[in-house]
Amino acid sequence: MTERFSRRTFLRATAGASGIALLAGCTGASAGSDDETGGDTDGSESPAPDREMPDFDGWFDRTRNYDGVHDKTGESEVTVAVGADGNGGGFAFGPAAIKVSPGTTVVWEWTGNGGTHNVLHREGEFESELTALEGTTFEHTFEETGEYRYVCVPHETLGMVGIVVVE
Ligand SMILES: [Cu+2]
Q1: Looking at the structure, do residues 23 and 91 belong to the same domain, yes or no?
Q2: Residue 131 alpha carbon to ligand 1 centre in Å
Q3: Does 117 belong to an annotated binding site?
Q4: 35 alpha carbon to ligand 1 midpoint, in Å?
């Protein structure tokens, strides 16, 4: 697992370019995916060099667009795309992982790509409608510190999951 950092950093230029590059990276067959000996070739996008990339107990094992925790602390409102490019199509939350301060409102905004999506918190604290409509928004204000894991029910198995870290 420790090889992930450097490998993902190496892949950053290609993985971030397009869904096609991302998909190619995930097959493990194209250049760049086997430059190191790590057996973990899930093709995740690479993080910015200084971005933390915790494993979250494997929460993002199938999430190829996970590119580290985007630090949004100190912002009162943060937007996450629903149907962002990733996981073989418009099947991603973008960014997949964010860190916010208590009191922050997270706004999920539907891109219109990837079909029908929703936002479902595992522990039932928030749940959006199920829709494909571009421009739909759903928001939740996080008051308590903690890790909030959520999924898109139709595409969870494709890796369309996310996390909000409140600290
Ligand atoms: Cu979805």
Answers
A1: no
A2: 9
A3: yes
A4: 31
Residue 136 C-alpha to ligand 1 middle, in angstroms?
Answer: 13
The pLDDT of residue 49 is above 80: no
Residue 122: the pLDDT is 86
| Domain carrying residue 8 | 4-47
152 appears as a binding residue in the annotation: yes
CATH number, domain containing residue 117:
2.60.40.420
Domain count, the chain: 2
Residue 59 lies in a domain: no
Amino acid 24: pLDDT: 41
Q: Are 73 and 84 in contact (CB under 8 A)?
A: no
* Residue 53 is assigned to a ligand binding site: no
User: Would you say residue 61 lies in a domain?
Assistant: no
Please tell me the distance from the alpha carbon of residue 26 to that of residue 127, in angstroms, as a whole number: 30
User: Cα torsion at 35, 39, 43, 47 (round to 10°)?
Assistant: -80
Q: Are residues 43 and 73 in the same domain?
A: no
Query: Ligand 1 centre from 152 Cα, in Å?
Result: 5
CA 29, CA 161: separation in Å to the nearest integer? 25
Q: Do the annotations mark residue 121 as ligand-binding?
A: no
Q: Is the pLDDT of residue 127 over 80?
A: yes
